[in-house]
Amino acid sequence: MKNYDVVINHKGAVSLSVVDSILHQLKSYINHKVHDKITRKRIYTLSVECLENIFRHADVNDEKNSLIKDYPPRFIIEKISESFIIHTGNILLNAHISNLSDRIEKLNSLELEGINLLYKESLSNAEISEKGGAGLGLIVMAKTTGQKIRYDFEKINDKFSYFAMQLNLKR
Amino acid sequence: MNVINIAATEKSPRVILNSDSNVFEMQGNSRPENVRDFFYPIIDDLKKYFESLNITEYKEKAIKFNFKLDYFNSSSAKFISDILVIVQTFAKKGFDIKIYWYFDDGDEDMKEVGEDFQEMISYPFNFIMVQR
Predict the structure, then answer these.
(1) Which of A110, B15, B75, B85 is most buried, judging by how many CB atoms fall within 10 Å of its CB?
(2) Cβ distance B11 to B32 under 8 Å?
(3) Which of A40, A41, A53, A118 is the mutation pick for testing B, counting most B CBs within 10 A?
């Protein structure tokens, strides 16, 4: 197997059909090239959660749409040796930054045992939003990778920023 | 009679609830486009089914819940937990309920999430490993 591979490289709008098409492409890659069942499943799990998050926050908004050319939603999977790195990017409201970074920081401060506990608590308490999110996606990402979530916010203007996230799945 | 009878799609599981055999079964993949529209009717029908049963008849007649899922996303996990909370509620009322959680040989994550659910509702699961 090659030591470096770009598994998925998507930059541009993320609609439901784009999500399906990326997942289809991913399945075909992992079924052929990833022999370990648990790794296959974990890459798929992480990809679904990331893509659904990007999709849910891709609400149609003229102000935001005008920024998409320069700040396109991004979903990239690289394979480096036996590890997979997932890069995501999407525009979000500055008003949402503190809530999101608090949630990631909380997860990053926990060991796997703490993350598992948080997952169980959140399952019982989760409320499904209008957009179908249960607020469990980030926890699943932390639980599945067992690694810290790397992230960054790049300020675009007074209203929006670009949220970049990196997940590392080691075998 | 099938109280619930939903065919599988690529993104949503097959769901069956049969009131003659008293088996509820969910099988396949779950990341439905509209997770609320998919699960709310199932949850409603399941509640109605339990409420229609006479407890004296069901203390010793087992109701089986089979979860044969290959994959589910995090929003589906929330609804599976809601289904299990209903199971827990009616088990506490005295219904004899058996939960079977299937997972593929090598898919430890699927087994683990079943264990998480088991712990969450404090009710025993039967874990069944499937060879493929």
Answers:
(1) B75
(2) yes
(3) A41
Residue B69 maps to which CATH number? 3.30.750
Number of domains in chain B: 1
Give me the residue from B73, B79, B120 closest to A120, CB to CB: B120
Q: What is the 3-state secondary structure (H, E, C) of B22-51?
A: CEEEEEEEECCCCHHHHHHHHHHHHHHHHH
Domain range A4-169, its CATH number among 2.30.110.10, 1.10.3520.10, 3.30.565.10, 3.90.190.20: 3.30.565.10
What does the alpha-carbon distance between residue A135 and residue B117 come to, in Å, rounded to a whole number? 17
Q: How far apart are the first and last CA of chain B?
A: 31
* DSSP 8-state symbol, B11: S
Per-residue pLDDT of chain A (171 residues; tens, 9 = 90+): 578 999 999 999 999 999 999 999 999 999 999 989 999 999 999 999 999 999 987 665 677 778 888 999 999 999 999 899 999 999 999 999 999 999 999 999 999 999 999 999 998 887 777 666 668 999 999 999 999 999 999 999 999 999 999 999 997
In A, minimum Cα distance to B35 occurs at: A132
